[in-house]
Amino acid sequence: MSKANKANQSGARAVSYSTSPLLASKTPPWRSRFLVALVGLAFLGLLARAVYVQVLNTDFFQKQGEARYAHTLELPASRGRINDRTGQVLAASVAVPSIWAIPKEVDADPTKRRELAKALGLSNKELEAKLNPETRFVWLKRLADDETAVKVKAIGLKGVFQDREYRRKYPEGEAAAHVVGFTNVEDKGQEGIELAFQKELQGRDGSRSVVRDRLGRVVEDIGDIVPAANGHDVDLSVDSKVQFFAYQRVRDAVVENKAKAGSVVVLDALTGEVLALANYPSYDPGNRQNLSGEQLRNRAMTDVFEPGSTMKPFIAGLSMETGRSTPDTLVDTGNGKYAFQGAVISDTKPHGVIPVREVIKFSSNIGATKLAMQMQPREMHEMFTAIGLGQRPQVTFPGAITGKLRPYKSWRPIEQATMSYGYGLSASLFQLARAYTVFARDGEIIPVSMLRQPHDHPVPGIRVFSPKVTQDLRLMLQAAAGPGGTAPEAQVPGYSVGGKSGTAHKQEGRGYASHKYRSWFVGIAPIVNPRIVVAVMVDEPTAGVYYGGKVAGPVFSQVTAQTLRLLGVQPDLDVKSQIVANQKAVATEESF
């Protein structure tokens, strides 16, 4: 070993580390305490956080955790059925596929996406807009058909799923559309009975909590299942066979007369049940694409018009009820022109001096005016009110309106006169049908119902005329619908009928359109022991014939015959004597 190395080792052993000025300084006590405090605070923070998560706010974090794997599936309730009086289904719910997606999980393969868009009937741009990655859930197509569902499943695109929802089916289609109505995509009623009985039909949805994997597949159930409570069925008074036949006949009449629209109402005169309520144009409740307001309008309920000559029997009835006349009381109608209060009231032809019974048979405006002007305005107003004019029909159905009946204190004499033959007031076809139950029920007006009644006994009504006066009025109505009257086309082979036709210019602005008419007929059958009331209206016939007896009368005849046969009502006349087609009697058209 060299001398230098020995010297270095000897010097190293000579150094004292304890006395080194660099190593002699001590660590301050506060520094260690500070570090210990920091560690302690950190543990306290962790402890506080644990208490907050595990004790104080455990529900929130539990939900957040479950949201990553737990899902609540809705168990939709089946909407109640709508049935006719015989149990025939008019509306029912069936399970159909609905297609949905979790956008951020949908496979980005452009080829498969194009196939999906085509299967769904969407453009590629529409599909991409739906599959916005920022959206957690999206319906791609609700209430799809089975063919679409099969195509989507065959594509096998990740992130696209299917569930079953309920969709309404309407077996009677256009024929019963305005009665049944329809529901929207959320299965909520929008029109007709579907809307009127939404609460009863809708039921209550249930729920099921499940665990789903990342592919959306159900792994297991968690928690209790809340079962769905299905909606209640609604049994209507409508007879689907009568409804279908009435719809066909009014549709044919509209087409044949090149008219704008038409309506039919059929009432059971014993129970007040609505056996049919049909309108044309109509629509298919199960396929409502490109619908127009004309198709949706329930004209029998919502359209009001001046009832014209159908008011004359009520004026004659009030005159006889108050003792001012009898069926044989003579009325001078002159030469068919009657100057009154600065106006001229006209009949279609001169009738001269005729009894009250022929005022109705020939539909004389002058005769009705002279009977009415013997009365006080208050008497006429009370009678009009008693038969339901100026009031909303008390029926569970949306859209029924009041019509127009002004307070009698504001009537001028000329207005009282025109009201006697149906001008200056307005009513719906439904209101007219109900008003004519007065003649079918020996002077009582009865309540009407869209629901099946529990029995077939006569429903009590409110008296308007005495039975004797009503029997006389029925004979007048029978004459009006017979040979020489205003509507022989309304006769029914095998059955006695009675009724009144009406024809009125349509209002246009502040006046009346010169070549636009509404034509209608309201009648009862059989005449001796009435069972039904049938009201028919055809709007704006343009094929050259517009009188109510000729346009609406044949529809009344056909619907009445079919309805009476379906109800099992026995014919009360010799069929041969009632064949009108071979008769050459010239009918007197009704006055306006």
UniProtKB/TrEMBL annotation:
InterPro entries: Beta-lactam/transpept, Beta-lactam/transpept-like, FtsI_transpept, PBP_dimer, PBP_dimer_sf, PCN-bd_Tpept. Residues 262-559 form the Penicillin-binding protein transpeptidase domain. Catalyzes cross-linking of the peptidoglycan cell wall at the division septum. It catalyses: Preferential cleavage: (Ac)2-L-Lys-D-Ala-|-D-Ala. Also transpeptidation of peptidyl-alanyl moieties that are N-acyl substituents of D-alanine. The keyword DNA repair does not apply. Belongs to the transpeptidase family. FtsI subfamily. It is found in: Membrane. Pfam families: PBP_dimer, Transpeptidase. The keyword NAD does not apply. Its EC number is 3.4.16.4. Gene3D superfamilies: 1.10.150.770, 3.30.450.330, DD-peptidase/beta-lactamase superfamily, Penicillin-binding protein 2a (Domain 2). Residues 75-221 form the Penicillin-binding protein dimerisation domain. One of its GO terms (biological process) is cell division. Keywords: Carboxypeptidase, Cell cycle, Cell division, Cell inner membrane, Cell membrane, Cell shape, Cell wall biogenesis/degradation, Hydrolase, Membrane, Peptidoglycan synthesis, Protease, Septation, Transmembrane, Transmembrane helix. The active site is at residue 309. This is Peptidoglycan D,D-transpeptidase FtsI. SUPFAM superfamilies: beta-lactamase/transpeptidase-like (SSF56601), Penicillin binding protein dimerisation domain (SSF56519). The gene is ftsI. Its main location: membrane. PANTHER family: PEPTIDOGLYCAN D,D-TRANSPEPTIDASE (PTHR30627), PEPTIDOGLYCAN D,D-TRANSPEPTIDASE FTSI (PTHR30627:SF1). Pathway: Cell wall biogenesis; peptidoglycan biosynthesis.
